[in-house]
User: Which sequence fits this backbone?
């Protein structure tokens, strides 16, 4: 864990902005730095209180028998899609050029 | 009779008796809203008062004339800007969703409308529900009807303002860490955050998925019971929704307070930042319970000191994740500098999100990043599991938990907007409820000398909505 | 490029072949990740129909479009398919599992994250046995271990045409996949290709997938690198992750190319990389080379977090047992059994078991036949040809396995001759009538009554004194000729063996 007094170094900051797909110019770095320090403090508090609880106990669970049955339901029509964006043409969503797959 | 002063249940009675029509009701609310807009400091609780609200009201009146007796027929409600209604704009108080019109309704609004209710309009909110004052809305802030220089609270400030300000009898909001209870407390009305899973989140734009719940605002307890009875229940579109039947809440009897055991979380009620006037009002509330035969005692729940940290670690992580889908590709704002899709993402998101939302996304990604290999979030989960366990233990011995809703009263607009960290502390007393997934009702139990409302939370064990509403009803009828 | 590569075969350490390239020795290390679309009725997390093709964006809903407020709901059927696939590949299936979010930005990924499984995959620790030998050789089996199988959703498809834009179809967004991750046990392009073929065969067999490679039902990513030994020192080349290959040939060719390219790169450029450093690549079939896909120094951080919208869930023993039972007999097991029980050749076994439906059809016929080998012949020599010619499936036939059984038995019992059986077959194909009915109807019943045949033999002999004379002179081929005449006179209905015996007997008595 990052225990530096400097909340985050410049490279990490740039990487985080890129991960968030946000431009550096649009974020107030000073306020952000304060929030980062705050979050780091919160981590410390958590460490004090975290015991050997199973993290998944924090989530209600269910059984496989209760899952959705899998019947087909028709949903949106192309006319619905035309209403949510102007970049829908000939049945496709138009985007800037992409290559291959993303992951 | 001023229509705008009537509660939802009172309106229902008058509709059923024929004394009022739904059209008259809607027109009254529109008139109130229009009149308010002409004042020097309008509430600006509504972002949009639907142009077709009267049409829907006319339809309801016609249906009633034809024998339709659905439980909410013709009754109006306001909805927070992050809950979908098919065919209506849903922008979450944000620029990035400008132009987005929902092609489907949220299950909660769908159920209200299936029961005959009439949507009046969408209400203002902190952008993507991130905030405690409604000042982070891209539409500008809303005002507190009690004192228009003050914030109505947030993030569901608009919904609280319209209900407290006589522009709707009932409104939906959402909570992640107190965003219904806090505005209810600041504006002097009831605000319920149900148990996680009681109300479906399908169609409700996600902020912190494991914390979010739809909440209800009203001026009378019965109104919440009536609405909840129609809205609650398992939804096939929400895997986390609970299988329960709350139809009995349509008719609430006051609870028997005698013999109840009430716990006060020591860590909060003895906290340093608690306004002395609020402490005094809270003490009076405890006295009322004692007078009515309940035992009231302080209980130490040490893990509550970690609740705000636990909340922010989980909420911001989930928020950063949930807001990843806003990229300008399929809906909403699109800013394309023409240099490829990555640049489109950066331009759209930088332009479309407000500053606080952007900061929270960065922090959330920081928590989830490889720096910590997911350890921070996991730690948050562990602490949360502990909170849930310790709170459940308390409810093993106690009926209710009582606690002030906020350490302060409504604060002046502009006083905290540049200090997000100070803003975070508004959630001090509320976040443990969301973490523990329990229900909590903020009850307007008093006012400061300056006349500012003070809310007190009545919290119950998971799925104890009926109990807490009945207790609130008992208090309400005793006033 | 790799002309100088000579494989010296099994001079291997830890089971991996060591190759020589000039002054270098190297081992090839390949691991595969196969993404396989499942044949569930609905998509992974919504109720849109799970089907290939169709007009773009006609099988979408708020969930698989990632609209604001939409929430994923997993289907029981999806989990069941995953568990059955896991058991079919000899994995352990977990009794508690959950989903996670994997974050990255791409236009075909609607939520900015993919719902997948990170640290609690549904299945772990499986394996398949691939056969390195040719089809006419004794099998040489190699174990390829499977690290894990997990559930995850597919993404939309981009249409690439000329111009500044791409066009996205989200019909495929949310289609349920399993990702099968092998351990890096493979040591040649051929092994990687065989692994893919093996997985495809098994998963098609159990009905988990249609394995249609052209439609993209299965895609393979190969992670390949080399351990190079130079003057006794060991080096590892950076791992190339060649993504989205959808044919066995592509896998073989891409891996072969990469081996050459990595050796070249090793000689020319001795950059030191951290262990596990990966370069993402695509295979350009037309150019015959791999191309690096990431141009930026992109900082990849998937920020995995548990999916809060889907409750973690337990799989009961009942559910798991039912899934295990659904696997049924797998291709290799069936082939072994067919070889043993029916004494069929490898080639015949392979043909009959290529398709599960065919194997089961044949087996039903075999069980109804007194001579299963004859049943096999009918299926292999006659039936398959008909199916191919008419471009139909087994379900389209008018006949059933019982028909074949009856036909085989009619010949074995001597009721009809093999030649007659061919006519019966042709007719029963068209009419769907049972062989028994056809035989009776045409009065085809083979004559096996000795006295009747004797009568015909006597008649033929009496009409052909010259033949008798030839026989007496020692021309033994007269027997065959006389028998032929007897068959002719009986319109082919005389039992040929009996006729031949009687002719010989009568001739001997003369």
Assistant:
């Amino acid at each position: 864990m990052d225990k530096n007094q400097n909340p985050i170094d410049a490279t990490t900051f740039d990487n985080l902005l890129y991960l968030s797909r946000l431009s550096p110019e649009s974020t107030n770095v000073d306020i952000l730095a304060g929030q980062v320090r705050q979050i780091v403090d919160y981590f410390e508090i958590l460490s004090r209180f975290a015991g050997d609880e199973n993290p998944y106990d924090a989530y209600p669970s269910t059984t496989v028998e209760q899952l959705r049955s899998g019947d087909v339901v028709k949903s949106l029509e192309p006319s619905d899609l035309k209403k949510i964006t102007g970049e829908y043409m000939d049945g496709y969503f138009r985007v800037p050029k992409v290559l291959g797959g993303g992951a | 009779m001023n229509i705008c002063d009537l509660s939802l249940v009172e309106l229902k009675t008058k509709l059923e008796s024929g004394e009022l029509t739904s059209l008259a009701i809607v027109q009254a609310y529109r008139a109130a809203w229009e009149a308010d807009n002409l004042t020097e400091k309008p509430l600006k609780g509504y972002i949009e008062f639907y142009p077709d609200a009267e049409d829907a009201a006319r339809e309801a009146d016609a249906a009633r004339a034809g024998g339709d007796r659905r439980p909410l027929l013709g009754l109006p409600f306001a909805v927070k800007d992050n809950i979908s209604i098919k065919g209506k704009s849903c922008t979450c108080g944000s620029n990035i969703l400008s132009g987005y019109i929902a092609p489907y309704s949220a299950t909660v609004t769908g159920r209200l409308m299936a029961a005959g209710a009439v949507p009046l309009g969408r209400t203002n909110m902190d952008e993507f529900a991130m905030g405690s004052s409604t000042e982070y809305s891209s539409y500008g802030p809303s005002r507190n009807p009690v004192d228009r220089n003050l914030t109505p609270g947030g993030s569901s400030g608009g919904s609280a303002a319209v209900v407290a300000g006589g522009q709707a009898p009932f409104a939906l909001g959402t909570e992640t860490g107190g965003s219904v209870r806090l505005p209810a407390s600041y504006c002097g009305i009831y605000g319920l955050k149900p148990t996680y899973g009681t109300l479906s989140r399908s169609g409700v734009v996600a902020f912190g998925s494991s914390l979010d719940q739809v909440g209800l605002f009203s001026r009378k307890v019965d109104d919440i019971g009536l609405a909840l009875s129609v809205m609650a229940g398992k939804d096939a579109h929400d895997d986390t929704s609970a299988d329960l039947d709350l139809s009995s809440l349509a008719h609430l009897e006051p609870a028997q307070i005698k013999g109840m055991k009430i716990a006060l979380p020591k860590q909060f009620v003895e906290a340093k930042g608690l306004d002395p006037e609020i402490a005094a009002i809270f003490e009076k509330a405890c006295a009322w319970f004692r007078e009515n035969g309940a035992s009231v005692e302080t209980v130490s729940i040490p893990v509550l000191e970690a609740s705000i940290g636990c909340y922010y670690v989980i909420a911001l992580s989930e928020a950063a994740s949930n807001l990843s889908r806003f990229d300008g590709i399929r809906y909403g704002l699109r800013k394309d500098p023409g240099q490829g899709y990555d640049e489109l993402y950066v331009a759209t998101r930088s332009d479309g999100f407000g500053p606080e939302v952007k900061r929270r996304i960065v922090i959330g990604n920081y928590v989830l990043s490889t720096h910590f290999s997911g350890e921070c979030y996991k730690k948050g989960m562990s602490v949360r599991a502990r909170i849930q366990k310790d709170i459940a233990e308390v409810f093993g011995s106690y009926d209710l938990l009582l606690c002030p809703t906020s350490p302060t009263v409504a604060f002046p607009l502009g006083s905290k907007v540049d200090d997000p960290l100070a803003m975070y502390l508004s959630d001090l007393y509320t976040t443990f409820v969301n973490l523990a997934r329990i229900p909590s009702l903020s009850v307007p139990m008093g006012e400061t000398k300056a006349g500012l409302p003070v809310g007190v939370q009545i919290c119950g064990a998971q799925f104890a909505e009926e109990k807490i509403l009945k207790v609130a009803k008992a208090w309400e009828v005793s006033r | 490029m790799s002309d100088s590569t000579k494989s010296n075969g099994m001079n291997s350490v830890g089971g991996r072949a060591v190759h020589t390239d000039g002054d270098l020795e190297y081992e090839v290390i390949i691991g595969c990740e196969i993404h396989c679309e499942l044949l569930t009725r609905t998509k992974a997390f919504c109720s849109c129909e799970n089907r290939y093709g169709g007009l773009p964006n006609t099988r979408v809903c708020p969930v698989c479009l990632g609209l604001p407020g939409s929430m994923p709901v997993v289907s029981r059927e999806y989990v069941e398919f995953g568990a059955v696939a896991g058991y079919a590949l000899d994995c352990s299936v977990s009794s508690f599992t959950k989903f996670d979010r994997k974050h990255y930005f791409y236009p075909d990924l609607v939520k900015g994250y993919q719902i997948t499984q990170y640290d609690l995959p549904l299945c772990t620790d499986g394996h398949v046995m691939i056969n390195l030998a040719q089809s006419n050789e004794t099998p040489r089996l190699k174990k390829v271990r499977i690290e894990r199988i997990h559930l995850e959703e597919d993404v939309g498809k981009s249409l690439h045409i000329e111009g500044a834009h791409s066009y996205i179809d989200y019909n495929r967004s949310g289609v349920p996949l399993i990702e099968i991750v092998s351990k890096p046990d493979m040591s040649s392009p051929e092994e990687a290709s065989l692994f893919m073929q093996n997985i495809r065969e098994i998963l098609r067999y159990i009905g988990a997938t249609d394995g249609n490679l052209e439609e993209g039902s299965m895609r393979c990513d190969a992670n390949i690198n080399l351990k190079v030994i130079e003057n006794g020192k060991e080096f590892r080349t950076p791992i190339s992750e060649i993504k989205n290959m959808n044919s066995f040939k592509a896998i073989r060719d891409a891996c072969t190319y990469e081996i050459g390219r990595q050796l070249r790169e090793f000689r020319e450029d001795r950059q030191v990389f951290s262990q596990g450093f990966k370069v993402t690549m695509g295979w350009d079939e037309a150019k015959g080379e791999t191309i690096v896909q990431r141009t930026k120094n992109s900082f990849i951080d998937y920020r995995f977090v548990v999916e809060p919208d889907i409750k973690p869930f337990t799989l009961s023993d009942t559910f798991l047992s039912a899934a295990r039972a659904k696997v049924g007999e797998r291709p290799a097991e069936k082939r072994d059994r067919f070889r043993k029980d029916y004494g069929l050749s490898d080639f015949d076994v392979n043909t009959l078991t290529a398709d599960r439906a065919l194997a089961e059809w044949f087996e039903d016929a075999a069980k109804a036949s007194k001579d299963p080998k004859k049943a096999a012949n009918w299926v292999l020599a006659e039936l398959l040809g008909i199916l191919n010619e008419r471009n139909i499936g087994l379900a389209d036939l008018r006949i059933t396995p019982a028909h074949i059984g009856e036909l085989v038995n009619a010949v074995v019992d001597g009721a009809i001759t093999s030649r007659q059986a061919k006519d019966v077959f042709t007719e029963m194909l068209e009419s769907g009538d049972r062989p028994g009915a056809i035989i009776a109807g045409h009065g085809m019943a083979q004559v096996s009554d000795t006295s009747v045949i004797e009568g015909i033999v006597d008649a033929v002999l009496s009409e052909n004194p010259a033949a008798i004379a030839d026989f007496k002179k020692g021309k033994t081929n007269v027997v065959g000729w006389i028998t032929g005449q007897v068959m002719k006179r009986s319109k082919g209905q005389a039992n040929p063996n009996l006729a031949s015996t009687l002719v010989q007997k009568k001739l001997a008595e003369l």
About this structure: The first strand of chain A starts at residue 62 and ends at 63. Chain A touches chain B through 56 residues (CB under 8 Å). The CA atoms of residues 79 and 103 of chain A lie 31 Å apart.
